[in-house]
Amino acid sequence: MTIKEVCEKYDITADTLRYYERVGVIPAVTRTSGGIRDYQAEDIAWVENAICFRDAGMPVEMLIEYVKLYQEGDGTIDARTALLREAREVMLEAKKKYDIALAKLDYKIGRYEIAQKTGVLSWTDDEKDG
Amino acid sequence: MTIKEVCEKYDITADTLRYYERVGVIPAVTRTSGGIRDYQAEDIAWVENAICFRDAGMPVEMLIEYVKLYQEGDGTIDARTALLREAREVMLEAKKKYDIALAKLDYKIGRYEIAQKTGVLSWTDDEKDG
DNA sequence: GTACAACTTGGAGTGAACTCCAAGTCAAGC
DNA sequence: GCTTGACTTGGAGTTCACTCCAAGTTGTAC
Question: Per-domain residue ranges for chain A?
């Protein structure tokens, strides 16, 4: 698969794919004899993971560290597990923040909807913040 | 409440609080006669909202826009509702991404845990990506 | 075999969101 | 009234994660 096809498949720019490879977010991609990237199933799996974890806020640094450990071999399985567990904790915390914000948002939207229907926006004392 | 007290209460730096005020993420904070910030309940409510929505990935630009609309008065209630609804959609999408990443993470952690117990890390064909 | 698009590289540039700094002002304790 | 520490401002600097660029190479279509 060419870089262009991977870009289109995952809606990501070629620059980002090359950047991921350059800094080590994914391991070196398979090349043709001419040096052009030719993504194999394994390369694509790494790309998919990178996008997935970046989308969940995992820092580039952490992905680089994971790839580095992976390349060092089976001796790093404990370290990799620890890294993934830490990432998991961070993600769960972040998700909680989303729930809190969504609750706040739904409450505010609800109040505005009532205001739109009645023409009156009523406030409680500790809530003079739009 | 002084800026320091607000910092400690919300675990945020004074620089960030001043930055939020400067760019309009929160409206101008109440001051003492000497010009020093003296956060009132309303100011604090704005700070709390700003932190909450930033934690859920809402861009600073969007918060600035909301405060601007709020300050323009009741005529902007429709616009504010639309803005909040859009923020809501974005947050729900982002939360989905977290769920996908968490599922992937849990699967990988599970595999590593088995590897740690048995000393063998087994792979399926399309999953040679650590 | 030559045009031409798509690829390659290293390195510089960008935007978002802070974060730091210098120079000065304010306020509480002695 | 003077020290000391926390506060003020405008502006510059930093970090993260890309994003763009120039100069050169590869590969396909005529």
Answer: 3-93
Q: How far apart are CA B118 and CA B116, in angstroms?
A: 6
Q: Which residues from B are below 8 Å from A110, CB to CB?
A: none
Query: Is the pTM higher than 0.70?
Result: yes
- Which bases in strand C are touched by protein, i.e. have an atom under 7 Å from a CB? 6-10, 16-21, 25-27
Segment 63-122 of chain B within 8 Å of chain A by CB? 66-67, 70, 74, 77-78, 80-81, 84-85, 87-88, 91-92, 94-95, 97-102, 104-106, 108-109, 112-113, 115-116, 121
> pLDDT tens digits, residue range B18-50?
999 999 999 999 999 999 999 999 999 999 999
Question: Can you list the alpha helix ranges (DSSP code H) found in A14-76?
Answer: 14-23, 41-55, 60-72
What are the tens digits of pLDDT across the range A87-107? 999 999 999 999 999 999 999
Which of 2.20.28.10, 1.10.10.10, 3.65.10.10, 1.10.1660.10 would CATH assign to domain B3-93?
1.10.1660.10
